[in-house]
């Protein structure tokens, strides 16, 4: 109890309360009034939520729309074509476009880590289409992410998720590609924040409740302002690394209809755009095998050889120059099997092996 200031007057003792007067016989006794409960609003003014503030587990999942991606991320090689850690920097300098990617201690973010970025971009695009306010923070469940990308729900999948988030947050990217009408100098990460929120059972076992991430400014602006977002084929997640990149390049820069002009590019340039790190001869062998399988969703790929030019080197006995090779991509007419939305797809965390030659998986160049 607070003490009274020195010299403050004491209050006179309170008079004892008078006993209530007796009521005349037959008079109704007054019903005692209970104190009126004040509403929370009457006690104190409602606490206003600051802009950008949200409940921790106000989930943005499940994803109800299609998987979609930003066009620049489809057209250019921002991710390593590897299943294991890729520890070397990546670079792409072609025409006016410049991209540098530096690894973290855990390596460069891979084409499989990109699944998380696609999932977040899809959540954001769906909110924008619904007219909702979109911020850079996203909260989702691993269960929904795995269901969308076709991964199983094993303990190993959760471990891979943790490792992928670390690479996405640690990988450093620098590019002169503008996003939302603005350019940036310096490096950024795909995720400026990435956290796994757990609860514990009585036995101490961890249970993952939600994943919370913060999307980088560059990609956030690109999706929010440019609206260059394209949908992905459902079969994308069953493809190997090179097949994924071929599909993305075709989707972002290739023909939109079967009767449109095909995309034709020389083999060396296409190798750079795909982001293949091994020698050109290996890339050519990989493309031949992929073209034979007809595995790229919605697109057909062919290798066209030109005539080898004769030059003075032939006269000097050094042999002929290799014939130039072009990659031609055409839009495939829709097939009945591809039009069936109820087609059965297997869900597995084991990445596809059947459509990949030994050259199709990048390894550090010797």
Automatic annotation (TrEMBL):
Residue segments, region Disordered: 1-62, 334-366
Q: Which InterPro entries match?
A: Replication_initiator_prot_A, WH-like_DNA-bd_sf
Task: Give the compositionally biased regions (Low complexity).
Answer: 1-10, 18-44
| Organism name | Sphingomonas dokdonensis
* Signal peptide bounds: none
Q: What is this protein called?
A: Replication initiator protein A
């Amino acid at each position: 109890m607070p003490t009274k200031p020195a010299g403050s007057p004491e209050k006179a003792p309170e008079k004892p309360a008078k006993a209530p007067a007796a009521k005349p016989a037959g008079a109704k006794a007054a019903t005692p009034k209970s104190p009126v409960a004040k509403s929370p609003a009457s006690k104190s003014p409602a606490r206003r939520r600051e802009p950008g503030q949200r409940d921790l587990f106000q989930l943005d999942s499940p994803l109800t729309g299609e998987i979609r991606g930003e066009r620049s991320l489809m057209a250019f090689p921002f991710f390593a074509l590897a299943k294991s850690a890729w520890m070397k920097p990546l670079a792409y300098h072609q025409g006016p476009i410049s991209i540098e990617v530096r690894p973290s201690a855990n390596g460069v973010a891979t084409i499989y880590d990109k699944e998380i970025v696609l999932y977040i971009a899809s959540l954001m695009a769906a909110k924008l289409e619904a007219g909702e306010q979109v911020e850079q923070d996203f909260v989702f469940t691993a269960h929904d992410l795995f269901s969308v990308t076709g991964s199983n729900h094993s303990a190993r999948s959760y471990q891979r998720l943790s490792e992928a988030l670390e690479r996405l947050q640690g990988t450093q990217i620098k590019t002169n590609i503008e996003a939302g009408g603005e350019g940036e100098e310096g490096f950024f990460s795909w995720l400026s924040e990435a956290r796994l929120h757990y609860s514990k059972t009585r036995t101490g076992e961890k249970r993952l409740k939600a994943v919370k991430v913060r999307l980088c400014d560059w990609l956030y602006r690109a999706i929010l302002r440019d609206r260059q977002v394209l949908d992905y084929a459902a079969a994308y997640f069953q493809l190997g690394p090179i097949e994924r990149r071929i599909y993305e390049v075709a989707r972002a820069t290739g023909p939109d209809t079967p009767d449109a002009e095909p995309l034709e590019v020389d083999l060396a340039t296409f190798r750079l755009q795909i982001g293949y790190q091994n020698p050109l001869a290996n890339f050519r062998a990989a493309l031949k095998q992929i073209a034979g399988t007809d595995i790229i969703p919605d697109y057909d790929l062919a290798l066209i050889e030109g005539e080898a030019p004769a030059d003075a080197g032939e006269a000097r006995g050094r042999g002929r120059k290799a014939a130039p090779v072009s990659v031609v991509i055409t839009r495939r007419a829709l097939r009945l099997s591809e039009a069936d939305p109820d087609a059965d797809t297997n869900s597995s965390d084991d990445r596809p092996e059947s459509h990949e030659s030994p050259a199709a998986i990048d390894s550090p160049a010797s």
